């Protein structure tokens, strides 16, 4: 019987070798991180985030661009951590991180703001104002002390009256901060 490879005029022995080569190529392609980014389940995408920062800048940027906009909040959070380990591609992906500051998940918003406040040359005033608005919520403030700490230190670097007013209002409305 004829096989689909026989249509190309390959002898039967060669058809077997070509089939084996195609099967190996398909298996090898499934091992590539790019395959998991596009077709992997949530667990596979989280695992890729944990190692993608070790890839070349081009491959890491390609993967993280997709992972930072993933439907899973856990994947986006781990992708943000991976990006913090790969500062060389920060400028390329800053727009994706900025979108995370509007995420519905508070942890993701806090981590994205914290990341953006640490990036040199970022629009710190914009991110400081957004962080201050988020931190106005007492529950949010208590569950994200890292963002509070970063916001206070970045605010003090600016040395403005607005910073003192903001800090005073926080302490006045939340006595626990004064302790």
How would you describe this structure to a colleague?
The chain has 179 residues and is mainly alpha-helical. The protein is 75% helix and 0% strand.
Task: Itemize the secondary structure elements and their pairings.
Elements: H1 12-31, H2 33-39, H3 42-52, H4 57-67, H5 73-84, H6 90-100, H7 106-118, H8 124-135, H9 138-143, H10 145-158, H11 161-173, H12 175-178
Helix pairs in contact: 2-4, 3-5, 5-6, 5-7, 6-7, 7-8, 7-10, 8-10
Strand content: under 5%
Radius of gyration: 24 Å
Average residue-wise pLDDT: 81
Flag low-confidence runs. Answer: none
Count of beta strands: 0
Distance between the termini: 84 Å
What is the helical fraction, as a range of percent? over 70%
- What is the overall number of helices? 12
Could you say which overall geometry the principal axes of the C-alpha atoms support? elongated
SSE order, as H and E?
HHHHHHHHHHHH
Find the structural class using helix and strand composition: mainly alpha
The biggest sheet, with number of strands, parallel, antiparallel or mixed sense and barrel status, is: none
Characteristic key phrases:
179 residues; 0% strand; 12 helices; mainly alpha; 75% helix
How would you sum up this structure in a few lines?
By secondary structure, the protein is mainly α. About 75% of the residues lie in helices and about 0% in strands. Helix 3 (about 40-50) packs parallel to helix 5, helix 5 (about 75-85) packs antiparallel against helix 6 and helix 7 (about 105-120) runs parallel beside helix 10 (about 145-160).
């Amino acid at each position: 019987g004829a096989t689909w490879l026989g249509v190309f005029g390959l002898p039967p022995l060669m058809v077997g070798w070509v089939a084996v080569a195609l099967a190996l190529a398909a298996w090898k392609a499934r091992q590539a991180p790019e395959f998991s980014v596009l077709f992997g389940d949530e667990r596979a995408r989280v695992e890729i985030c944990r190692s993608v920062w070790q890839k070349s800048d081009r491959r890491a940027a390609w993967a993280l661009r997709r992972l930072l906009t993933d439907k899973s909040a856990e994947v986006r959070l781990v992708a943000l951590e991976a990006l913090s380990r790969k500062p060389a591609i920060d400028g390329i992906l800053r727009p994706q991180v900025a979108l995370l500051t509007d995420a519905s998940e508070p942890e993701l918003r806090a981590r994205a703001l914290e990341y953006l406040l640490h990036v040199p040359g970022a629009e710190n005033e914009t991110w400081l104002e957004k962080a201050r608005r988020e931190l106005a919520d007492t529950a949010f403030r208590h569950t994200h002390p890292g963002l509070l700490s970063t916001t206070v230190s970045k605010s003090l670097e600016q040395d403005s009256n607005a910073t003192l007013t903001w800090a005073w209002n926080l302490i006045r409305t939340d006595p626990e901060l004064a302790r």
